[in-house]
Structures are given as C-alpha cells and as structure tokens.
Amino acid sequence: MAPALADRVFRYTGETPLFEALDINRQIKEALKREVSLPSGGYIVIDSTEALTAIDVNTGKYVGDKSLEETVLRTNIEAVSEVVRQLRLRDIGGIIVIDFIDMARDAHRSLVMRELEEHLRRDRTRSAVLGITHLGLVEVTRRKRRQSLPELLTRTCPACGGSGRVITETAAGRQARRQLRKLARETQSEAFLVEAHPSVAAVLIGPGGSHLRELERETGKSIFVRGSEACQVGELRLVAQGSRQDMLAQALPVQAGQVLELRVEEPTFPTAKTASPGWRATSSTSRGRPAGWARRSRWRSPRPSAPTPRPGSWCERRLLSPPPVSVRTLHNGPVAKTRTPSRNIS
Ligand SMILES: [Zn+2]
Q1: In the prediction, which pLDDT does 63 show?
Q2: Is 318:284 a contact under the CB 8 Å cutoff?
C-alpha cells in the first residue's frame, strides 16, 4: 500500500461481516467468470492459456434501431473499458490478444485503438499496445507482477484436465464396452464386477439390460455393472472377478428390506453455533420415507437461518433401504433395482 494513501484506511466496525456488507463474494465470482456482459447487450469472453490471454468481443443480440456499424462501434468502445477493468481486476499480465468485432470503417478502427490506449494509460501497471494484426486482432502486453486472480483462486479442473471438455456418456459407454471385451478375453474367471459412473453404467446396461445381455452373449462371461458416483465419466473400475456366485454376492451386498445401522458424519458449517434439538433424534422406521432421509436433505442445502449441527455430532439412523444401484446380468432376469449402502456408512 502506498504510504500517501494511508489516511484512506480505516477499521471496519459494522455489524455485518465485511465480505457480506460489500458483496465481495459475488464480485470474486464475477471476476472468475469467463463471460462478462457489456451495458448494451454485448459481452466479452476471457480465455487464459499458458502462452497468452485471448479476449473475444461479441455483440450478443442486435439491439436498437441504430445501424449495425453503430452497434459494432458502441460494443467495441464498451468492450475497451471493460477489458481494461478486467485486466486490472484479474491482474492479467503477459501477452493479451483482443479480438474486437470487425469494423468496416478505418475511422472506427482508429477510434477504438485510441480509446484502448487511453484506458491503458490510466492503468498503473505498464502495458503496451503493439498494434493490430491482419485479422484485426489487437496485441497488448502488460507487465506481469504476481499471480493473476484465477491463478490464485482456482486450479485446473481434474475432470477435464483444463481442456474444458470431457468424454460423452455414449463415447465412454463404447469405450467401457471395448474394455470389458478385452477383460473377458484375458480373464479365466467366469464373472466379473465393474463400476462406472452411473450415467455410463446406464449406457453399458442399455434399455432393459439389452446392451449388457448382448455383451454377455458375445463374451460368454457374466458381467455385473454397478453405478458409482466415485467414478469419473470415462473410468471403468474392475471391482472383483471370480465365480458367478461370488460376484452376485458382491454385486448385491445388501438385501432389499434389510435394516442397517448407520453412523453418519455430520458436516461442519462455519456459522454453526447451536445444535438443533431435533437433530439427534433416532428415527424410528415407520411406513414411507424414513425420518433420516428428511433430515439428510436438510443438511445438504442448509438455509442460513436453519439451525446447523454441532461439529462431530452424530446420530444413528435406521434406514429401510439405502440409495438404489442398478445391477443386471443375463442370468439374473430383468433389471433388478437393488440397494447398496451409501459410502458414508461405517
Ligand atoms: Zn473441467
């Protein structure tokens, strides 16, 4: 902080937390968004790569009675100030390439360039406009001082490895089918149990179990498929292999109607002050939904006013039946909706 600005600093004594009072959380979220809208309906898209940051300017829907040229100019001018604001807000440095909307007139082009230079001059971090390429891309370099906001607050998405795209369920299903064929060729066991993401498991099993039946016929093996949220789309886990009997037992670890004793770890909320008196109640299994389910859904989406559980508190729950998992084999008749315990059972 510059010493000259020291008198602008004061201690906040308000009742509401500072981040709430100034709506900081929303602004941080905004500063991490890929798309930023402009006042007249246009928007910019910010993409940072290893080498450079690309900023694309778009008109959005055509608005007003002005000519297209006017709309384009206005959107580009609006984009200039927003782009510079975002560069500062996000602390983006290095090479920046801005793709303005094509302008037919030279006068408009130079107007936008002048505007950009003007705005960048007011930015305290030094930057340079290197000019406009043949394709109308404007190159800017901005000094990089420290990590940008996205670098500081986010990490590469583990599901897509940063590409922003993941394999579709259908493609993952086909891939899993090939893996199962290979597995069937290589194993001596008559049966195996695999786990896949629920949506992929559904593709693998097929309508009425048709796909799995076909695969079993083709390979001569008994194949048990279990949906698991712990699997990524595109991931197939071999859980076990062996005799058909063993696999069947493993695929259906719990019989329908079986009563389970569950110990549920309650999540901790930062605002937790009191524990709900009703929270610890042991639900007696009655007809319909076990009482435990209703409570569970409450702590999944806690309202700020709702009482939150004390950290470490726990309650015993008797469940009529745990979450469903589809299991199907050729020898097992039609798709059996069986139930297995959820992962938070100990
Ligand atoms: Zn991703």
Answers
A1: 59
A2: yes
DSSP conformational letter for 146: S
- Parallel/antiparallel/unpaired status of strands 94-99 and 52-58: parallel
Report how far ligand 1's centroid is from the alpha carbon of 161 (Å).
6
Measured in Å, residue 231 CA sits from the centre of ligand 1 at 15
At a CB cut-off of 8 Å and minimum separation 6, what does 63 contact?
A: 40, 41, 71
**Can you tell me the distance from the alpha carbon of 100 to that of 296, in angstroms, rounded to the nearest whole number?**
50
pTM of this structure: 0.57
- 282 CA from centroid of ligand 1 (Å): 40
β 336-339/191-196 pair status: unpaired
Report CA(201)–ligand 1 centroid distance (Å): 21
Q: How far is the CA of 36 from the centre of ligand 1 (A)?
A: 20
Ligand 1 centroid from CA 253, angstroms:
33
Tell me the C-alpha distance between 177 and 326, whole Å: 17
Tell me the pairing of strands 260-265 and 222-227. Answer: unpaired
CA distances for 170 relative to 174, 230, 233, 287, 327, angstroms? 6, 19, 10, 39, 19
Q: Among 33-47, 60-74, 245-259, 261-275, which is the least confidently predicted range?
A: 261-275
305 in Cβ contact with 272 (< 8 Å): no
User: For residue 157, how far is its CA from the centre of ligand 1 (angstroms)?
Assistant: 4
Q: What share of the chain is helix, strand, coil (3-state, %, to 5)?
A: 35, 20, 40
Compute, in angstroms, the gap from residue 123 CA to the centroid of ligand 1: 32
Report yes or no: 38 and 82 within 8 Å, Cβ to Cβ.
Answer: yes
Distance, CA 263 to ligand 1 centroid (Å)? 33
- Taking the centre of ligand 1 as the mean of its atom positions, its distance from the CA of residue 61, in whole angstroms, is 28
Give per-residue pLDDT as tens, 58-97.
988 765 666 888 899 999 999 999 999 999 999 999 999 9
Torsion from C-alpha of 343, 162, 56, 151, nearest 10 degrees? 90
The strand pair at 191-196 and 222-227 is best described as: parallel
